[in-house]
Amino acid sequence: MRYRNILCLFILFASYMIVSVATADTRYVVDELVITLRQGKSTEHRIVKTLKTGTPLEVLEKDDKSYLKVKTRDGAEGYVLRQYVSANIPKKQRIEELEMRNSSQQKKIDALEAAKSTLAMQLKTIQEEHNQKFSEINAKAADLEQRLEMTSLNERTMAEKYDTLAAQAENVVEIAAERDQLLQKNKGMETEIAALLEKKEQLADSRMIKWFLAGGGVFLFGWIIGKISRKKRSRF
After folding, report:
1. In what order do the strands lie in the sheet with 67-72?
2. 178 or 51, which is more confident?
3. CA dihedral in degrees (76, 45, 24, 16; nearest 10)?
4. 3-class SS at 64?
5. For the segment 158-190, what is each residue's pLDDT rounded down to a tens digit?
6. What is d(CA 140, CA 144) in angstroms, rounded to the nearest whole number?
7. What is the DSSP letter of 45?
8. In the prediction, which pLDDT does 22 show?
9. Closest CA to 20 of 77, 57, 58
10. Residue 209 to residue 203: CA distance in whole angstroms
């Protein structure tokens, strides 16, 4: 029975804590004030601590029309006058928070701008490298196109030469036969010419002999005639 009562009390206490936590809300000390946190619901109770503007307070009890039972974030509990707290965040604190947010946002914006500038520089560098490589590729393509044109021209020239040689090669056998015949005729003519030259020399030699003999005969005939004449003259 005793344990049952203890269990019931524990359940009731836990329920109260759950309800208190569920129903608790946060209030703030209103603008430009310093209020007191007291142990009780009157100015006669001892001051627990002073609270500045913007101090967040967790509301524990709010049944009283004049006072609220609150708890600070450092764990101090007490009562404050309802009229000096508000559910809204004080303007000064809101401004500070907004300024902090703006400052944080500005830092993020500055970081994004810096990143954007860095990306722009990188993009410019990449674009310049791309343009340079594109120019090099165009130059190589133009060179290759020129070389291809020259190669095609050389190929056509070689094809024409090949066709000419192929056409000439068809008569190679006949040309070779004609060449051999001409060589043979040439050799025969050279032989005939050599024989004629030899005959010419023989004729020239025989003529010289004949002329020599004829001259000697004439001289001898004259000498004989002269001698006969001289004999006849000596007789008379």
Report:
1. 47-52, 34-38, 77-81, 67-72, 56-61, 26-29, 85-86
2. 51
3. 100
4. coil
5. 878 877 776 766 666 677 777 777 777 777 777
6. 6
7. S
8. 45
9. 58
10. 10
